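Q: Predict the assembly, please.
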Amino acid sequence: MDAKVRTDTLTIAGRSFGSRLMIGTSRYPNQQVMLDAVEASGAEIVTVAVRRVSLESGGEGLFDMLAGKYWLLPNTAGCFTARDAVLTAELAREALQTDWVKLEVIGDDETLFPDVEQLLRAADELVKKGFVVLPYCNDDPITCKKLEDLGCAAVMPLAAPIGSGMGIRNPYNLRIIRHQCSVPVIVDAGVGTASDAAIALELGCDGILLNSAVAGARDPVKMARAMRLAIEAGRLAFEAGRIPRKLYATASTPIEGAIEL
Amino acid sequence: MSETRVEQTITINGARKPWSGQSVRALLVEAGIAPERGGVAVALNGAVVPRGDWDSTAVRPDDKIEIVHIVRGG
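A: Predicted assembly structure:
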């Protein structure tokens, strides 16, 4: 990109990233498509999960494929209690040698909405244990502020339920969260297509974490590229500053010198 | 003392296995996981065993061991 219109970087816990996109590694048609899509997305932060090793088959070598190339961000997906989430984070820290964790504490299988009480408890404990905590949370300004006050390095409000692809359902709350929090605000969950990502960035959100919208697209590699461009476009638009909305027209072409009959 | 002792066991990833005084490292080898492999972690009775302690940590009967690795996630 032209140096004059370069977007600024995303900084979380003192570490700067050129891309404002964080991308998941799950549910792609196959491994090669996943690797190609992640690359096409331009993301530097890539999310992974921690699961039991199959004692029969040993298991996939995902770590070897991604380590060193991307900033691996383990999640605590599937945890329903603070206790499970904290142990999962500790296992992830040991497995990946990273203090960073995408903290998820789920309250309900059907909606995958966070259990706020358990989330706050886990966030508090993990921050005290020295983790860089990036919590998946509701688009609730009060919860986000509490998470920030506990010492979380970012807040990651959902825009719509995980995997729903419903887009930015409450732009006003996201704007309030952006105003009230000083840590980065990353929209995590709900993005369905490129314009959703652009809108989130135009609102002032600092980044996007997505998975399903790319992995489930007919062509995940193309969608990954689309997300990359949309996020760049959205950020540029935010930095440039949109014009105010007005009810009536304002001519863009000057009136002076127009012919009169 | 009866000769028919009940076999002592440990639980690895939810499955019962015979106990033989193994180290954590030996458990990994038994499970077919190269201990040098990256992206692997072990918890013993709910507490992480740091990689550096795998050799010196022996499991005891009825211990619960979780062996995890990095997989795809969102």
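Chain B touches chain A at residues 12-15, 31-33, 37-43, 46, 48, 50-51, 66-74 (CB under 8 Å). The mean pLDDT of chain B is 90.
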